[in-house]
Amino acid sequence: MRERSVVSAVPPSTGPWRARNRFGLFIQGHRFFPAMIEAIAGARERIALEIYWIETGSIATRFINALSAAAGRGVAVFVLIDDFGSSDLDARDRRRLTAAGVHLARYNPLRLRRGWGNLARDHRKLLLIDDRYAFVGGAGISDAFDGPDGWRENMLRVEGECVADWWTLFANNWQRWSERACPPPQPVPAGAMRGRVLAGPGRVGRRPLEHTAIRGINEARRRVWLVTPYFLPPVRLRQALVRAHRRGADVRLLIPSGEHCDLPAVQAAGQRWYEWFLRRGVRIFEYHARVSHQKLLLTDERVLIGSANFDRWGLRWHLEADQALQSGIVAGQTAGMLEGDFALARELRLEDWRRRSFIARLRERFWARIEALAARFAQGRRIVHATRRQTGGHRGQTSRNDR
């Protein structure tokens, strides 16, 4: 079978704007994990979990217990885990899920013969409960996010018409890795907030997440607050941020500090752009309280939140999914939350940044060069988001011999 490029292999899943929704923001794991577990406990018909990062630990055990209990009372439970991101979920936990009747599938199982195709990963973090709820954000099922002092992260609870779009997105991906059918969704309106489901990558030449982010920035008049753990922005995103500042918008970037970044090499590569932005008036804040894993964009009354890091890897190559919404209420809550984060961050000044050490500059240049070479190399390769049949999988089900 002829391989297709990463963007052409993925079915289009970006939905239209829906007018009848309700959104709730949960801040930190000690709030969103209990809400997600409670929703699982209340499920009556079906549950779907699509997750990149899941690892054995107390949080995973709570989810496994809740999902197993749901399957035991007759709820259809579908779990799609990324094979690389779930490498720290041990075989015993996987067996507990399948023994309880959970339908478990692995996204793009790692195979030596797949070569560069192994780079195609499902980075989404999504929990669906019946036709009532979708939980969307950037949190993995990991103890790293547990408690008020865990990694800084948020999850958004979605109710209303967008939930059916989230089910469609999940089903499109699920059917590529499992022969078990996922029932079609039934839209259930709730509230009066506008929302839109965005998934990436799209068809060739289309990058819905990147284009939506840039459009929001281009239309903003008051504020553009972008929060990301890894900042390697495409050129059009960089230009949009600078244009917003020149229009008079308050443009801020919130990025983890060096001692609180889980991928220091990636952070160093992104720091090459700090002086460029500072010279053009964009404000940069380094968050010092803990590891910041947040991924969101606030532009006036619009919020974009989900799994996508605002870099070219996430916006163009990984499977990502975000919820776009327009609501003065949620935007106000998000702004208040971020004001608290900015208060725990240090604003970088151009004159101070220019005084950083020679070693720091050398590290930036080295990792920026490595990242640019990797991106150029990947751009010229076919990073294929294959199907189960292309990888030689067996019904997408994890067996005792898989790990």
Description:
- The radius of gyration is 21 Å and the shape is globular.
- It has helices spanning 29-41, 58-72, 91-99, 162-174, 208-219, 235-246, 264-270, 274-279, 312-316, 328-343, 350-353, 358-379, 388-391, and strands spanning 18-27, 46-51, 76-82, 103-107, 125-129, 133-137, 154-160, 193-200, 223-227, 250-256, 283-287, 296-299, 302-306, 320-326, 345-347.
- The chain has a single domain (18-391), classed as Endonuclease Chain A (Endonuclease, Chain A).
- The chain has a 15-stranded mixed sheet, sandwiched between helices.
- Helix 1 runs parallel beside helix 2 (58-72), helix 5 packs parallel to helix 6 (235-246) and helix 7 (264-270) packs across helix 12.
- It is α+β, with helices and mostly antiparallel strands.
- Residues 1-12 and 394-403 have low confidence and may be disordered.
* Strand order in the sheet with the most strands: 4-3-2-5-6-7-1-8-14-13-12-9-10-11-15
CA-to-CA gap between the ends?
Answer: 28 Å
Count of individual beta strands: 15
**Highest-level CATH class:** Alpha Beta
Structural class: alpha+beta
Number of domains: 1
Strand content: 15-25%
CATH topology: Endonuclease, Chain A
Keywords summarizing the entry:
403 residues, alpha+beta, Endonuclease, Chain A, 15-stranded mixed β-sheet, 15 strands, 34% helix, globular, disordered N terminus, disordered C terminus
Q: Could you give a quick summary of the protein structure above?
A:
With 403 residues, the chain is of the alpha+beta class. 34% of the residues lie in helices and 22% in strands.
